[in-house]
C-alpha cells in the first residue's frame, strides 16, 4: 500500500472488518481514534491490547476507550497529553486492565494518590515521569517502548 494511503482517515476503519483475529492494536496518533475503536468493537472480538503513541487523549478519546473497549487487558498511553480526569475515567471504566502504562504523560502527576488507589487492582501500572505540567522526558520520547506491553503475545 502506498505510504500516502496508509494515513488516509478512512483506511484503517475499513480494514477492521478484515482483522477479526486482531489481538493487539497500536495507533501512531489519536486521530480518528473513536471511529477506529467503534469498528474494532464490532469486528475484533479478540482484542486484548491497545496503545496510542504520544497521543492527545481528550475526554472523547477516554470515553471511547471506556465505552468501546471496557474489557481491554493491556493499555499503553505512554507520552500522552491527557488531563487527570480522563485518566480517572479510564481507570474507573476499564475494570479488566492488567497492564496500564501512562509513563511520561503530561496532565497529571506521577504518584497521585487517587490515581494510585484507582489503579491498585492493575498488576502492572506505570506512571513514571508523568507530571501536571513542565513535561520532561528522560527516556527516548520519540519511540514506543514495549516495557511488558506485548508480554505473552509477542516474543522478540
From TrEMBL:
PANTHER family: F-BOX AND LEUCINE-RICH REPEAT PROTEIN 6, F-BOX DOMAIN CONTAINING PROTEIN, EXPRESSED. SUPFAM superfamilies: RNI-like. This is FBD domain-containing protein. Gene3D superfamilies: Ribonuclease Inhibitor. InterPro entries: LRR_dom_sf (IPR032675).
Amino acid at each position: 500500500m502506498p505510504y500516502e494511503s496508509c494515513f488516509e482517515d478512512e483506511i484503517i476503519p475499513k480494514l477492521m472488518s478484515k482483522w477479526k483475529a486482531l489481538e493487539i492494536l497500536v495507533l501512531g496518533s489519536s486521530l480518528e481514534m473513536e471511529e477506529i475503536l467503534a469498528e474494532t468493537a464490532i469486528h475484533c472480538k479478540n482484542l486484548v491490547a491497545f496503545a496510542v503513541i504520544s497521543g492527545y487523549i481528550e475526554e472523547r478519546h477516554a470515553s471511547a476507550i471506556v465505552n468501546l473497549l471496557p474489557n481491554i487487558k493491556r493499555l499503553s498511553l505512554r507520552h500522552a497529553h491527557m488531563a487527570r480526569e480522563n485518566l480517572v475515567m479510564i481507570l474507573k471504566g476499564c475494570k479488566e486492565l492488567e497492564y496500564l502504562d501512562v509513563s511520561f504523560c503530561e496532565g497529571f502527576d506521577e504518584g497521585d494518590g487517587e490515581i494510585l488507589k484507582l489503579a491498585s487492582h492493575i498488576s502492572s501500572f506505570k506512571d513514571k515521569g508523568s507530571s501536571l505540567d513542565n513535561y520532561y522526558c528522560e527516556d527516548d520520547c520519540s519511540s514506543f517502548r514495549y516495557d511488558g506491553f506485548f508480554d505473552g503475545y509477542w516474543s522478540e
